[in-house]
Specification:
By secondary structure, the chain is α/β, with parallel strands linked by helices. It has a single domain (about 1-375), classed as NAD(P)-binding Rossmann-like Domain (Rossmann fold), CATH 3.40.50.720. The chain is built from twelve helices and 14 strands. It has helices at about 15-20, 35-40, 55-60, 80-90, 100-105, 110-135, 180-200, 240-250, 265-280, 300-310, 340-345, 355-365; strands at about 1-5, 25-30, 70, 90-95, 140-145, 160-165, 165-170, 200-210, 210, 250-255, 260-265, 285-290, 295-300, 320. The protein has a seven-stranded parallel sheet, with helices on both faces. The protein has a three-stranded mixed sheet with strand order 9-11-13. It is globular.
Amino acid sequence: MRVLVLGADGYLGWATCMHFSARGHEVTAVDNYFRRNASKKLGCPPLIPTPGLLRRAKIWKETGGNAIRVLTGDITDYEFLLSVFGRCRPEVVIHYAEQPSAAYSMMHRNAAAFTLQNNLVGTLNLAYAVKETGAACHIVKLGTMGEYGTPGIDIEEGWLEIEHKGRKDKFLFPRQAGSIYHTSKIQDTDLLWFFARTWGLSVTDLMQGPVYGISTEEDGMFPDLMPNFNYDEVFGTVLNRFVVQAVAGHPLTVYGKGGQVRGYINIKDTLQCVYLSSMCPPGPGELRIFNQMTETFSVNELALMVEETGNKLGYGVKTEHVENPRVEQEEHYYNPKFTGLTDLGLKPHYLTGEVLDDMFRLVANYKERINRNTIFRGIRWR
């Protein structure tokens, strides 16, 4: 199968390229290096030095992998995206090419405007490229569980059946964003649902919870092939940040009361989910939504697990509750449904002490690269 990965230089992007390539698919990787450059500008580069896509593709091939074609450009440039479609004629497009950080989107007006422009125009261009090139192409877009917010009812898998005044219909589950980033992801979903029912596009929208993990099966623990692992407040995810904080001797930064509950997923399971979704596309005109997660934890529960593992390894981990810079409920009901991907064959990697042990040991190898000044900046939502 011909696979196009947009946003291939990100935390999930390169790992996805290797995952499909290792299974014999023809992979094209596209990125404009926004996240890499923004991390450097903010003084918070990834923990593990990673070369650019061209170099990584070369190393992948030298270590026995299939060739991965690399194209550098910005998908908000429609002519560039059309040229990519012409060259690789994709049968599935994995769409990661978005500004991925809630904190970044809330830094200032220009960051908010960039997030909206980049994410929405990129998604718009992708839909038009599929339509105008006549590609029989399945779009797999990475959404976020953050689109739902924290409603006081069970979170269904994308859709909700409503009965009102004696009549029933099915609607997208109500969304309530917690940031400009999450707002853009809601609008992505609305755009793709419009194009699915108007143009007959085939779309899978994966509502993913926060991801954790450093290594995948395909990178073979070879540093140059490992994901772009950020640990800072802007681009790092919470569990990854906590493990780095523990190794650095920095208190774990729990926002507010720490009762915020979210659905989490190991990066290895992200790869499974994207692959399973790609191999089993929905029909034309269908927007299929999966909640992509395997377990729920509160921030306090994650902090306690990191404390226990870190202290067992001799790190003397402490937790500090800091004033919450975000606007969010710190104690709330949270019960999302997530059976669709399991039904497709997902075999979860759950968060265990052994998994945390491995994360601690990997982070410890790069302890000297941790910049403590980037761990907590206090980017405020208000």
